Known about the structure:
- There is one protein chain.
- The longest helix has 24 residues, at about 260-285.
- About 60% of the residues lie in helices and about 0% in strands.
- It contains 15 helices and no strands.
- The relative contact order is 0.15.
- The two termini are about 35 Å apart.
- By secondary structure, the protein is mostly helical.
- Helix 14 (about 350-360) crosses helix 15 (about 375-395).
- The protein is globular and about 55 Å long.
Amino acid sequence: MKETTTLPPQRVSSVDAYRGFVMFLMMAEVLRLGRVAEAFPESAFWAFLDFHQSHVPWVGCSLHDLIQPSFSFLVGVALPYSMASRASKNQSVTVMWLHTLRRSLILILLGIFLRSMHSEQTNFTFEDTLTQIGMGYPILFALGFASEKTQRYTLVWGALPVILVGYAAFFALYPLPGPDFDWSQTGTTADWEHNLKGFAAHWNKNTNAAWAFDRWFLNLFPREKPFEFNGGGYSTLSFIPTLGTMILGLIAGKWLKSATSSTLLLKRFLITAAVLLVLALAFHFTGLNPIVKRIWTPAWTLFSGGCAFLLLSAFYFAVDVKDLKSWFYPLIVIGTNSIAAYVIADGFGSFVRGSFKIHLGQHYDTVFGEGYASLVSGALILFTEWLILRWMYKKKIFIKI
Length: 401
């Protein structure tokens, strides 16, 4: 009797283009648009670009804030294709699980490594994009495998509200700062302009349940000095609602993989986006749960998930439905090698910048004036990084975990 095999699924160009767009935004940090905005304080144009290349102080969203949730969302989108590819190779469940656990560990360790590059010793921190994904990835695989086995979404859809409601309750039950609270241990003040009032104050910076957890958890590791607070308000436990973002991506990936009509798929994506955005805004404006990316509130999971569905819809329509792949080639080059792009963006910018100063002169970047220096050097760095990725793409050198 002949053994039946399943053909491996083809790459979806729109997903690669969307992932490339996300990584491009991250790589483009080398442009340092904030410096240009400071040099031209009266320019609304540079102020606008600076805002969208920066994280908002607490509540709200900029384009830059959508990088991490998009990357996490796309991990979920890719999972059904990854599982199908492994099934086509007749891999056993045990082998798939071993790969999943290995990938999870590598992502966590890589995230810690990249965060430790400019430290005197290992910086054990777990709020990095890679570590957050790594901690939630085994659970995502378990949900994906279970729904693949039963061909139903009940478990996946059921897990999402459990995660979000449970995480919201964890914050809501943690006591608010009292009159004798020591604000010096938080890196903020009682009158910080971005502090929320009323019930929403449970999600204020470095006075919340996740901050309290990190004051215990992160001090279990060797540190240069005891951990008191994260300056940006980020926390380890954000991996839990980040898992919710990955689950939304998993749902989108299953719909995409099984789609028989592009029109129906786009309608499904857009309706889901609308529902998620309406729910998020309702929670936010009623004061039940604010939209805060830095601690990944449940409302942020819904809001960023809605944005991710919209972006995926746009790329799917342009790249796959309208077949404009050639227009998005620069992004596809980046998106097909996202881990390489991540490492290059995080670790090679300073080296390339220094090399240009050595070979082109210390003041090569002031050719258009001091105000545009960071833009000139950043553009050259960005182009150099893209050329490296393009060379890898042409040579079919892909870093996979």
